[in-house]
Structures are given as C-alpha cells and as structure tokens.
Amino acid sequence: MTDGLRVVVEADGGSRGNPGPAGYGAVVLDSGADEVLAERSDSIGVDTNNVAEYRGLIAGLEAAAEIGAESVAVRMDSNLVVQQMNGAWRINKPELRALAARANELRRAFAEVTFAWIPRAQNARADALANAAMDAAAGKPPRARATSPKAPLAAGQSWTPPTGPRTRLVIVRHGATEHSADNRFSGHNDLPLNARGRAQAAALAAREFPDVAAVVTSPIRRAHETAERLAGALRVPLSVNDDFAELDFGVFEGLTLAEASERHPEALAAWTASPDTAPPGGESFAELAQRVRRGRDTIVGRFPDATVAVVTHVTPIKMLVRAALDAPLSSIYRMYLDTASVSIVDYLADGAAALRLFNDTSHDTSHAPSS
C-alpha cells in the first residue's frame, strides 16, 4: 500500500439509444475527505454504452494521474467494465479490447488500482456528468446540476475575491535564449540568456514585486540567471528546487516542431496523444505534473501567508495554471507564455487556488518576437 495521494475515481458513460448520442463523466475524489479534486466529461458522438463507460474510466484515470495520485480506487455502476478490468470476464469486442488496453496502460502508472461495482444511486456525480455529455451529443440544452452533501462545490468556489491567509506564487518565466527566438524545444540544456534575455532579466529586477519573501528557481541555467537578478534586486534569499525544471524533451531537444515531426513522427504523435507517454529519452507530462505539484506543495507548506517568486519554464508554469483552474491537460495547448512573463496564483488555506495574473509582460520594453 502506498503512502502517497489516495483517490477515488467514480466514472460512468452512456448513450441515448445504444448506439446513439454518447458521453461520459468522471470524478476524482480525495479518498479521505470525499473532496472533489477533478471532474472530466465529454461527448463522443454516436457510440455504445460500453464504449462510453470505458471512456469515462480512462478519463478518470488520466485525471488521477495528472494530480499525482499513487493509489486509485475505481467505482463504477458498470458491472461489465469492472469485471473485465478485474480479469473475471473475457473482452470479446475489438473496440472494447482497445479501450481496456488503454485503461491497463494507465493503471500501470499507479502503485495500486482497484475496481469495484457500486449501485447507480451511489454513482450520482459521474452519472450526472455523463448525462450532460449525452445531452450535448444529442443537441439538447444542458440540464441544471443540483449539488448535495455528496457533491460539494469546489473549495473556495465564489464570485467574490478570496480573503484570508494565502501563499502567493509570483511565477516568472526565464528570459530569452537562442532557442526562444526559433521556437525550439528547450528542456534541460545549458543555454545561457541571450542579449534580449539579459535585458528582460534586468527589466524584471526593476519591476515592483511587493512583499516577496524569497525567490525559488529551477536549477537550469537560463532560469537561474534570471532568478539571480531578481533575488538580488529584491534582497531576498535565493534557493533551487529541482521540481521546477523544464520538461525533459528527450529526442526532441533543440528541434522545432516541424523538425520533430519530420524526424520522429511516431514518437511526436504518441507524446501529444497521451500525458503518460514520454518522448524517447525524455519525460511525460504526467511525470512533470507530479513533480511540479510536489514543488508547489513544498513552497506552500514552507511559506504560509507569504509571497514567493518562482522562476521556471513554460511547461511547469502551464501545469501550475492548469491545476489552479482544475482544467484538463489539453488546456496547456491553449496557453501562450512570453519569455520573462509574470503570472500569479494564490493558494488558500482551505486548499482552493485563484489565478490572479497570467502572462504579464508590462515591464518588458523590448518589442522583438518572443516564444
């Protein structure tokens, strides 16, 4: 039994007609507090109940991996999926075999995964998400979703600004390097800041950052150089946290996207299709998400009710923002971050997070294109 994060995944799926307009839903809960950590749902066009149920299971396991879970208890009201995943029933349909293979691939990333059948009444959260997705697939207006003690609103959910103690992370992307201008994959290389990057670091150092207690940096050179300028100007301690290093891009390192597509098309397609797939010689998004979460938790635990500047890279910043918004992993492809940009996230005492600023470059007076 692992001592890491333990979660419950409740998943469901269905179709209007079997086959018919189909959709799935999945909820990830803290196994100790019954707190909703993540929700996933989507319409999948015209398909069968069983396909939709498997898609719900896969979405729930992917969400559990994204938040760094190590132990997962899956609960579903589909006896077929539960028995097949437990190995008790044979999987005859080819489309279900492919989905079960994907689910088994995901389960291997966890220290422990169990599957249990529950009555539909006990799977109300996932069922509601699946029904909303089916309605969307059928072109129907969304239903109102009622809350209950079993399906609480997310911690701190409110229209009003959060108050009370909070750890504020001022999240800074490093200044530009030679890779930045060419939009090249830039992971664990030792490139220094270029002339523009040094100017950006100086502009960051001249910017006002109220009440910053410390600066934490990735160990990679371009981030460390940027952080040194910032910490020196703020006159606060500088420390290194390896959890905020950029993604290891493996064989893609130093290539443009077009070059990676030409030289490693299958590897690139597999990497972009699954958060659990790493580039050859590199690191997966799921692995990065887990270590960034660990780095964030370390700072929040060490600096309660304080502000800390974190100097890091594109992918860790996107993971921090994605987690703060409880957005799907696909959201990282919809975020753009300039070099030397500033984003701010508040982490509240009740576990909620609030995005206060994103990709601000008002301090940067240069006008050259940036990646």
Task: Please tell me about this protein's structure.
About 4% of the residues have low confidence. This protein has 11 helices and 11 strands. Helix 1 packs parallel to helix 3 and helix 6 packs parallel to helix 7. Strand 1 and strand 2 form a beta hairpin. Strands 8-7-9-6-10-11 form a 6-stranded mixed beta sheet, with helices on both faces. The chain is α/β, with parallel strands linked by helices and 371 residues long.
Characteristic terms for this protein:
single chain, 371 residues, alpha/beta, six-stranded mixed β-sheet, five-stranded mixed β-sheet, 11 strands, 35% helix, 22% strand
Can I get a quick summary?
The protein is 35% helix and 22% strand.
Q: What structural class results from the helix and strand content?
A: alpha/beta
Q: Main beta sheet, described?
A: 6 strands, mixed
Mean pLDDT: 89
Tally of separate helices: 11
What is the 3D form?
A: globular
Order of helices and strands: EEEHEHHEHEHHEHEHHHEHEE
Catalogue the unreliable spans. 144-156
Question: How is the secondary structure organized here?
Answer:
Layout: E1 6-15, E2 20-30, E3 36-47, H1 49-66, E4 71-76, H2 79-85, H3 94-107, E5 112-117, H4 124-137, E6 166-173, H5 178-182, H6 195-206, E7 212-217, H7 221-234, E8 238-240, H8 257-263, H9 265-273, H10 285-302, E9 307-312, H11 314-325, E10 342-348, E11 353-360
Parallel strand pairs: 1-4, 4-5, 6-9, 7-8, 7-9
Antiparallel strand pairs: 1-2, 2-3, 6-10, 10-11
Helix pairs in contact: 1-3, 6-7, 8-9, 10-11
